[in-house]
Amino acid sequence: MSLPSSMRGVQIHQVGDSSILQHVDNLALPSIGALDVLVKVEYAGVNFIDIYQRTGVYAMPLPFTAGREGSGTIVSIGSAVPSTLSLNVGDRIAVFTQGTMAEYVSAPASGVMKLPASVSTQSGAAIMLQGLTAWTMVQDAHKVEAGQTILVQAAAGGTGGLLVQMCKYLGATVIGTVSTPQKAEVAKRHGCDHVILYKDVDVEKEISRLTDGKGCHAVLSGVGAATFEADLACTRRKGTLVSYGNSSGVVANFGILALSKKNVKLVRPTLANYITEREEFEERSRELLELVGSGAVKIELGGTYALESLGEAQDDLASQKTMGKLLVKV
């Protein structure tokens, strides 16, 4: 396949607000190693991790190309990619690797997800990071089971909406928090049994009322600092608090003895550590694709932006203006 000599992409040369994102028209195509594939990116997902990298919360060597997930088509395969992976030029895949906010990205062949006909390329970009993150949270961080009560913070968002659907699929009662009545309708559509408007209602008191004072078997929260104390208070005795994000800031100055009050398990997961081994990645990817392909989990898109509008997309995500998954059409 004939490839261009350069590509478009978004690079970061210094940390800061969205104005530091640089759209470049003549980036060199990434080279691939013997065990890699080169992917022509069609869609890239917009995630809070992109903002954490841009602002320096997660330190990155500078400069770097933005984006952590995407989908597209394989255009080149490394010389030593095992045939057991069954990858071919032309395959539609989803990818979890750095640099997806560009026309081409290189990725380890062992970490790409081949998309079945039942899953669109758009959905592939929407589920690679957020979908696997959500699914490993309800399988590995806390095993959600029928009869449990689960609190999902930001239940109308991209990850939150997936968590709600997955918890319902697994038989749990789901309580979701949202900021507006419009988002409450979205959370209900995702399957929330109860929705709390956290700007109007005391979340801790409402959780206590809904659970007869026991709290939730698990709290799944990507908010970080702003809700951490409430997240902990809403977790029942022997329950699990899964704190997976920092959208309001990083949790700091936490005293571990606070967990002993109710023997709460605190988990701060990252997706990569749940799918490090190929077997782990294949198992969770296969399960996720089955959920999406069957319609058990539906992908709700909150907006599609041009590559040149990545800054706007990140700002919209950070300002709570959006519902559902944001994508960039590369």
UniProtKB/TrEMBL annotation:
Species annotation: Pochonia chlamydosporia 170
Domain Enoyl reductase (ER) residue range list: 16-328
Annotated transmembrane regions: none
Pfam short name (any one): ADH_zinc_N
Source taxonomy: Eukaryota, Fungi, Dikarya, Ascomycota, Pezizomycotina
Entries under Gene3D superfamilies matching the protein: Medium-chain alcohol dehydrogenases, catalytic domain (3.90.180.10), NAD(P)-binding Rossmann-like Domain (3.40.50.720)
One GO molecular-function entry: zinc ion binding
Name of the molecule in the record: Probable quinone oxidoreductase
Swiss-Prot/TrEMBL keywords: NADP, Oxidoreductase
Cellular component aspect of the GO annotation: cytosol
InterPro entries: ADH-like_C, ADH-like_N, ER, GroES-like_sf, NAD(P)-bd_dom_sf, QOR-like, Quin_OxRdtase/zeta-crystal_CS
